């Protein structure tokens, strides 16, 4: 998926000034009067859309959240290690048959409560994550998505 950052040729951490400068340069290069190649009008439209979203802090923040969500729903790797990372705090906690269970709707297929972890799973299967916490990998019961879940052990 091509992001508005890709359209403007900037990183997602680009400053407002860097975005503005990139927009001006790309627009100038794409303008039919300035370009030696015939430019597609849709390229100019896309540049304008990208700049309109990314120049405003509020719309940029909303765009970033929606783009990240779209990547997850479509199954693209966001973390570069093959698994998207979630916190146990993203899950809904419930008690079933005297044991705590954490549920999450799948971010890809949106299966209701299709990802679940029990206290026993966390106690017996979690591994140290190298930063003082723990992690465990869980699969959606509806589709093939696997995610990494990080958590901390509560002091008793």
UniProtKB/TrEMBL annotation:
Where is the DPH-type MB domain positioned along the sequence? 82-152
Name by which UniProt lists this protein: Diphthamide biosynthesis protein 4
What organism does the UniProt record list as the source? Diutina rugosa (Yeast)
Q: Which UniProt keywords apply?
A: Cytoplasm, Iron, Metal-binding, Nucleus, Zinc
By sequence similarity, the record places it as follows: Belongs to the DPH4 family.
Q: What is one Gene Ontology biological process annotated in the Swiss-Prot or TrEMBL record?
A: protein histidyl modification to diphthamide
Explain the purpose of this protein: Required for the first step of diphthamide biosynthesis, the transfer of 3-amino-3-carboxypropyl from S-adenosyl-L-methionine to a histidine residue. Diphthamide is a post-translational modification of histidine which occurs in elongation factor 2.
Show the GO cellular component annotation of the record.
cytoplasm; nucleus
Query: Where in the cell does this protein reside?
Result: Cytoplasm; Nucleus
**Which ranges carry the J domain?**
3-67
Task: Answer yes or no on keyword Zinc.
Answer: yes
């Amino acid at each position: 998926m091509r992001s508005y950052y890709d359209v403007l040729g900037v990183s997602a951490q680009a400053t407002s000034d860097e975005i503005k400068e990139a927009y001006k340069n790309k627009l100038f290069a794409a303008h039919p009067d300035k370009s030696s190649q015939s430019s597609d009008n849709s390229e100019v439209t896309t540049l304008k859309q990208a700049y309109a979203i990314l120049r405003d802090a509020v719309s940029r923040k909303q765009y970033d959240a929606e783009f990240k969500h779209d990547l997850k729903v479509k199954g693209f790797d966001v973390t570069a290690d093959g698994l998207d990372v979630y916190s146990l705090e993203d899950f809904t906690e419930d008690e079933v048959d005297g044991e705590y269970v954490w549920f999450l709707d799948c971010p890809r297929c949106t299966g209701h409560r299709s990802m679940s972890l029990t206290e026993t799973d966390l106690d017996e299967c979690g591994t140290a994550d190298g930063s003082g916490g723990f992690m465990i990998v869980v699969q959606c019961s509806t589709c093939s998505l696997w995610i990494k879940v990080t958590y901390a052990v509560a002091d008793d």
